[in-house]
């Protein structure tokens, strides 16, 4: 987590409560509002490092959870992890063979920001599209998908792609999103399947 947020109250709360980052509270709020995860859901978490969403997921389901990231994820009890690229067909196959049924795909990932808004927006949307494509390859019909994005000129196209693949799509700005940020989450429920990207 960036040192510029070192004095953030939510950061200190997360540390006190044993979460790896303040992002844990964003997933809690999304779950409270949208009931995305059920107690028997298998979950795949994309861009999962350092693992705070995985920690929350473990409290929400008794089923299996896989966290995927390009970087290693420190071990968590009851969580499988894959160090790899979600665009790699071998990673997709590993997820399918490990879980069999995938009920939920979550993605709280974002690329390192350069500060150039249009460039960063394009990179974020590209990452979102990769996460959506992954979800469409592994989700069972009726499954759910949550992805972090940012408002901008390319966002409506991403939102439309989600609507093409899920029966119910909404956006959510959590109360833990920093003031002035354009960050928001797409909450897509009830996957139509198969993919029609």
Kindly summarize this structure in a few lines.
The protein is of the alpha/beta class and 197 residues long.
CATH architectural label: 3-Layer(aba) Sandwich
Beta-strand portion reads 15-25%
Q: Enter the CATH topology name.
A: Rossmann fold
Strand elements, count: 7
For CATH, the homologous superfamily is named as Vaccinia Virus protein VP39
**Total helical elements:** 6
Describe, in plain words, how this protein is organized in 3D:
This protein has 197 residues and is of the alpha/beta class. The protein has one domain (3-191): Vaccinia Virus protein VP39 (Rossmann fold), CATH 3.40.50. Helices cover 37% and strands 24% of the residues. A seven-stranded mixed sheet has the order 3-2-1-4-5-7-6, sandwiched between helices. Strand 1 (43-46), helix 3 and strand 2 (65-69) form a beta-alpha-beta unit. Helix 2 packs parallel to helix 3 and helix 5 runs parallel beside helix 6. It is globular, with a radius of gyration of 16 Å. Mean pLDDT is 89; it is low at 1-6.
Secondary structure elements and pairings:
Layout lengths: L8 H9 L6 H11 L8 E4 L5 H9 L4 E5 L10 E4 L5 H11 L2 E6 L9 H22 E12 L4 H11 E7 L10 E9 L6
Parallel strand pairs: 1-2, 1-4, 2-3, 4-5
Antiparallel strand pairs: 5-7, 6-7
Helix pairs in contact: 2-3, 5-6
Question: Which short descriptors sum up this protein?
Answer:
single chain, about 200 residues, alpha/beta, Rossmann fold, 7-stranded mixed sheet, 6 helices, disordered N terminus
